[in-house]
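Supplementary Note 2. Why include the ligand at all?

Several targets in our set were suspected to adopt different conformations when bound, so apo predictions alone were not considered sufficient. For every target with a known small-molecule partner we therefore ran a joint prediction. The input for PRP is given below.
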Amino acid sequence: MNIKELISEEQIEERVKEMGKEITDYYKEKTDELVAVCVLKGSINFYSDLVKRIDMNVLYNFIQVSSYSGKNTTGRIKVKSWVEESLEGKHVLIVEDVVDTGNTLKYIIKYLERQKPASIEIASAVVKNVYQHGVNVKFPGFDLGDYFILGYGLDYDQKYRNLPYIGYVE
Ligand SMILES: O=P(O)(O)OC[C@H]1O[C@H](OP(=O)(O)OP(=O)(O)O)[C@H](O)[C@@H]1O
Ligand code: HPA
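The joint prediction is reproduced in token form.
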């Protein structure tokens, strides 16, 4: 498979630093504590880098959902694990690697809202087709078109997640 670099390791590092500042500035008037929900597996690298750049108490929480097979969504979200602690009254930041069709996030938000958090916002390393999926990503990293991307947590059939950059398949 021919993989072309699209976003370098240095560009990612720089943008994640900025995003950490944007998120800190946004929340600091509202709360001194944030629950960051990592959507496994793809968000693992972005999550780990981002939380270190947020300058307030960040409580960790993890969920695992998946819906892709190869390059295509199956349209069915499989939940493998879900949040452990109650989110009632908490400010919640969902951390994603990519928002593509938006289906995964719509599903997650619908169920997290039932726990009555004080707020729910989204940070995503990459947002594709930003105006098409109807999900408001308050903290987008990079806006991309319709590439199938991999690396920095993103996979193609579970492979290539450990590439330090974001690439696409030629
Ligand atoms: O906006 P959507 O079209 O729903 O696509 C985005 C979702 O797809 C990927 O997850 P995937 O199902 O590949 O699971 P993974 O995180 O384990 O790779 C990605 O990590 C997002 O969660
Ligand atoms: O472009 C992508 N790459 C990897 N996983 C994905 N899940 C949704 N879109 C993508």
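The pocket of PRP (ligand 1) is lined by residues 39, 41-42, 66-68, 73, 96-104, 155 (CB under 6 Å). The chain has one domain: 9-145. Comparable summaries for the other entries are listed in the accompanying table.
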